[in-house]
Amino acid sequence: KQAEKAVHQKKEQSKTKCRKARRRHINLVAEFNRRQRKNIWLETHIWHAKRFHMVKKWGYCLGNSPTEKSYRACYRAMTKHCLLQDLSYYCCLELTGKENELLKQLARICSIDAGLTFKEACCLSGRFEGTLNLYRADRYPEDMLGPVTFIWKPRDGSENRQLWIWMHPALKQDILRELKAIFQCSEPEEIYIPEPVTTSVQEEKQMDIVLSLGKKRKMEDKEGEKAVPVKKIIGDSTRDPFQSYSWISQTTGIVISDRTMEILRYRLIGPLSHSVLTETLKAASLQTV
């Protein structure tokens, strides 16, 4: 029995894949999908993981501190050049509906005595981003929810407007619950049923097909084409993937949508930030049909 057990162990060890096989793109993507099931990765995760000490906070895997002594370099970039920060882990809620109805209800969770409000002229036009503190409906100055930033979509001639509100992931559930209460958005606009995530057993079978007998075989789908695993992020760290991501009010028509991890957010700090943006982003030519 011991001899047979040893033989089986040798066979199992022989099936382990070499580093070259594990580092192939098709296997890397499947492995990355498996590793970010509990903690979501940002788009810049690979870059940060090579240079930063990573921490797991609020359901995300974030870069905490650099592995090298780059504090002086960061300070030099902030004061003389440009420093970029990835803030994509911040949550975004999108409000769509009539402007008057939006301002009427949003005035209940903020106050002009505390500073800026959603109806500020410079922010209402969509040219500037605003920052304010939110409170529970009609409870100012008590029951503060937390600070948020917001930006309006510029007017396009219609009475419907779009408003994006950004908040910390620790504040999202409380703010979302308060917004659904004041706008009476209890009915979901549609039920979100995500595609089932490929289990680890299925992923291993797919890898075995590719690497079986030591030959490089291309994995094919039902149509006979190359099947390459795609990066899958279903839901986010602040929302169950099987819950609805959009709610609508039957009385006012206001729609609240959860855009977390759908809209990336970066912060540029430094005197050359505007120059970097103008050199990076090119205006598209306007084509009229």
Automatic annotation (TrEMBL):
Record-linked InterPro entries: Pop1 (IPR039182), Pop1_N (IPR009723)
One GO cellular component term noted in the UniProt record for this chain: ribonuclease MRP complex
Residue span, Pop1 N-terminal domain: 4-97
Any Gene Ontology biological process: tRNA 5'-leader removal
The protein, known as: POP1 protein
Species per Swiss-Prot/TrEMBL record: Bucorvus abyssinicus (Northern ground-hornbill)
